[in-house]
Structure formats: structure tokens, C-alpha cells
Amino acid sequence: MASRQASQRSHSRRRLGAAAARRVLPAAWRHRVRSVLQYPETLRLVADARSFRAFRRLERPSARWAEGELAEVRLRALGGRSLSLRPGTDDNWVVRSAFLSGFHLAPEELDESSVASVLDLGASIGATTAHFAHRYPNARIVAVELDGATAAVCRRNLVAWREQCRVVEGAVWSTCAPLVYELAGSSSQAHRVVTAPGPATAPTVGLPIEDLIGREAVDYIKMDIEGAEREVLRVNTSWASRVRAIKVEVHPPYTVDDCATDLRALGFSTRIDKRHWACVVGVKEP
């Protein structure tokens, strides 16, 4: 009897161990398969072998980094110039999203050589801003980023284009007012203005688009401001009369239909960006 009970306990442990393995191994294998499938994408992104290794290391959860260490990655889309990326964040995803999709770029109605001013609202680490500066060498660009730590990386990444680019820290909003925003941990894409302070919020200040552009005309606005777009497109919108084209990434509960309606009310013809289902393009008729 004792022998049979011991055997049953041993069998149970093996069965539980197998179940645990089934729970763990698929995730590990999924990561490995995804990693292999991303090889061609990474090769398209980076400009040299060292950058390839650095980028792959960023995407390896087990990689060890020194405190404060940054990965320097040279990118083909920037003519071989580099960006600094933070380990343990989604900076690598930001780079993949920007340079593989390119949906942040100005709509085709705007001739690249004619783009003289760009407003990058929600600039994150400056990947999209750097791409604008590279693609539109005659443009003046204002990059606005909500989070202080991310804005610091953005400034570092735009040193090569400092004659073209200016970084402003704050929350794009309809009025100039004290605000708080939600800290999103390792995500450099999910900081957003919230209605009340809390243990995971930080203070900031509202930046109306009117104040950012003054009386100047703007050729193109890229707007990715994590839900603040509804407020900005509905309140104090006189700035829109001086903008030729805009792309808005929409965040729930605001919808693409809501956004298209608001943009049309501001004088833009609209369509959904073919490269991003939640991005609305607005263009003024010439």
C-alpha cells in the first residue's frame, strides 16, 4: 500500500511538472519563433552588424544591462545616424513602429520638398521627429513630449538635427493649465493626461497648439497624444485654419468616425490611413 501511494505521489508530481512545462515552454517557444521571424525586419531597420546585435539584445528579456546604459542603434532610414534606446522599455517597439510602417509621415498630397514646418505631437523618444528631419531637411520641427524622462531621451536623439528641431515638454491640451498625467512604467507610449492626481501620476502643464505655432502656418501635424485628441480637436481650434495636413492616431473612447467628423468641421477632407486602421488623415484642399 505504502509503495502504491508513493508511486501515485510520484506520478502526480510528474504530471504537475508536465503541466507546468506546457505552461512555460509554449511562451518561451513563441518568443523564440517571434524573434526568428523578426530577423528580416531587424535587418531592414539597422545600418550595421553592431546595431543588429544591439537591437536583438534589447529584445532579449534575459539580457543584462548596466544601470543607465543605453543601446546605440544606427538606422538605415536615418542615413546611418543612430538613436539611443533604453533597455527594459518599449523604445525598441517605437523604432519598429516608426520605421517599418512609416504611417507618421506626411500624406502624399504634400510634396516632401515643400514641407517647411512640422508639429510632432507625442514625439516619444524622437524617432518620428528624427525621421521628419531626415526626410524634410528644409523643415522646422517642434517635438512635444509629455513625460520628462522620455523627453530627455528625445533631446539626446535629436542632437544631430538640433538646427531643425526643438523639443517642448508638456501635455498637448486645449488650454494652458496645470494638469497631471499617468505614469506608464516602462512604456514610452502610454503616458496620458488624467483627471485627478494619484500615486502613479505626475504634474505637467497644458500646451495649446495655438501657443506652439503662434501665428505661423504649419504644413503638417502628427498627433499621437493618447486620448487628448478629442479635447484638442473640439476646444480652442482656431489653429486649424493655418494647418495644411494632419494625421491623428485615435484612442478609445474617441472613435475614427468621431475624429473624421471633427476634422471635417475644421475644414479638412478626411480618410483612414491605409497603413493604420486607427489613424485619420486630414488634408486641406489646395
Features:
286 residues; alpha/beta; 7-stranded mixed beta sheet; 4-stranded mixed beta sheet; 9 helices; 13 strands; globular; disordered N terminus
Short description:
This protein is α/β, with parallel strands linked by helices. 36% of the residues lie in helices and 22% in strands.
Structural account:
The termini are far apart. Strand 4 (140-145), helix 6 (148-157) and strand 5 form a beta-alpha-beta unit. The chain is 36% helix and 22% strand. Mean pLDDT is 88; it is low at 1-22. It has a seven-stranded mixed sheet, with helices on both faces. A four-stranded mixed sheet has the order 6-9-7-8. A two-stranded antiparallel sheet has the order 1-2. It is globular and about 50 Å long. By secondary structure, the chain is of the alpha/beta class. Helix 2 (39-45) crosses helix 4 (91-101).
Topology of this structure?
Blueprint: H1 2-37, H2 39-45, H3 49-58, E1 71-74, E2 82-85, H4 91-101, E3 117-121, H5 127-135, E4 140-145, H6 148-157, E5 165-169, E6 171-172, E7 178-182, E8 192-194, E9 201-207, H7 209-213, E10 218-223, H8 229-234, E11 243-249, H9 256-265, E12 269-272, E13 279-283
Parallel strand pairs: 3-4, 3-10, 4-5, 6-9, 10-11
Antiparallel strand pairs: 1-2, 7-8, 7-9, 11-13, 12-13
Helix pairs in contact: 2-4
